[in-house]
Amino acid sequence: MNDSFYDKIYRAVQQIPRGRVATYGQVASMAGNGGAARAVGNALHVNPAPGVIPCHRVVNAKGRLAPHFAFGGDEEQRRLLEAEGVEVRDHYVDLKKYQYRPL
User: Fold this and answer.
1) Annotated catalytic residue within 31, 40, 44, 55
2) DSSP secondary structure code for residue 63 in this structure
3) 59, 66 in Cβ contact below 8 A?
4) Secondary structure of 12-50 in the HEC alphabet?
5) What average pLDDT is seen over the chain?
6) pLDDT tier at 31 (50, 70, 90 boundaries)?
7) pTM value > 0.90
8) Could you tell me if 100 and 21 are in contact, meaning their C-beta atoms sit under 8 angstroms apart?
9) Residue 2 phi/psi, 5° resolution?
10) Ordered structural domains, the chain, with CATH
């Protein structure tokens, strides 16, 4: 299969379980290019299936929500995360508590 990097990013994001988050850099690594965190942001901004590809579960390296979350702003990202049990304080998620750590 000859998938694009965006396809690999979308598959990686789909692995993040409900109630967990991953960082842009972590998703880039999961997709095979750890140095491409910015590309992850670009891919998620044009997410073709927001209900299927849970881009709201991706935060920056410090746990900050996306200030320009493409699907309703950071308040919508907060709402979606809190609906999954993720606590958000002052636009940040505690990565020690909520970061996805695949085996």
Assistant:
1) 55
2) S
3) yes
4) HHHCCCCCCEEEHHHHHHHCCCCCCHHHHHHHHHCCCCC
5) 94
6) very high
7) yes
8) yes
9) -115, 70
10) 5-98 (1.10.10.10)
Q: What tokens were used for 73?
A: 């702003």
Q: How confident is the model over 64-98, as pLDDT tens digits?
A: 998 888 888 889 999 999 999 999 999 999 999 99
Annotation says 32 is catalytic? no
pLDDT band at 1 (very low <50, low <70, confident <90, very high): low
Residue 54's identity, in one-letter code, is P
The rounded distance, in Å, linking the Cα atoms of 47 and 43 is 6
Q: Report the distance separating Cα 62 and Cα 10, nearest Å.
A: 21
Helix (H, G, I), strand (E, B) or coil at 64: strand
